[in-house]
Design a protein that fits this description.
By secondary structure, this protein is mostly helical. The chain has three helices and no strands. The longest helix is centred in the middle third of the chain and has 39 residues.
């Protein structure tokens, strides 16, 4: 998945959920039978958007920790190498100092 796709899809789903909630309120006042279905869609979209935002923030925090650990163990400045590595892997046994050696 692209770097910021989870974030943008999560924001979009939350905005859509708020719109559906407003539509639910408008339809509920007119006593339409579709109102409950609209509320269900809003709830599902809101929950999914919140989960995607949580996962994105967790991945971003993991990426920042790896970069901070790599910068702490390396003596030289490696600013241009942040995009070379895919930090979405689940292999946490990898030594951060190996990243420094590979970047040199």
């Amino acid at each position: 998945m692209l770097k910021k796709t989870k974030f943008y899809v999560g924001i979009t789903l939350i905005v859509q959920a708020v719109s559906f909630a407003a539509l639910f309120i408008a339809l509920c006042r007119k006593k339409r039978s579709v109102a409950n279905a609209i509320l269900a869609i809003a709830a599902i979209g809101g929950i999914t958007g919140a989960v995607l935002l949580y996962l994105d923030s967790k991945d971003e925090l993991k990426r920042r920790k790896i970069i901070a650990a790599r910068d702490a163990c390396c003596a030289e400045d490696l600013d241009g190498y942040d995009d070379l590595y895919d930090f979405d892997t689940e292999d946490e046994s990898e030594d951060e100092c190996e990243l420094c050696k590979a970047a040199q």
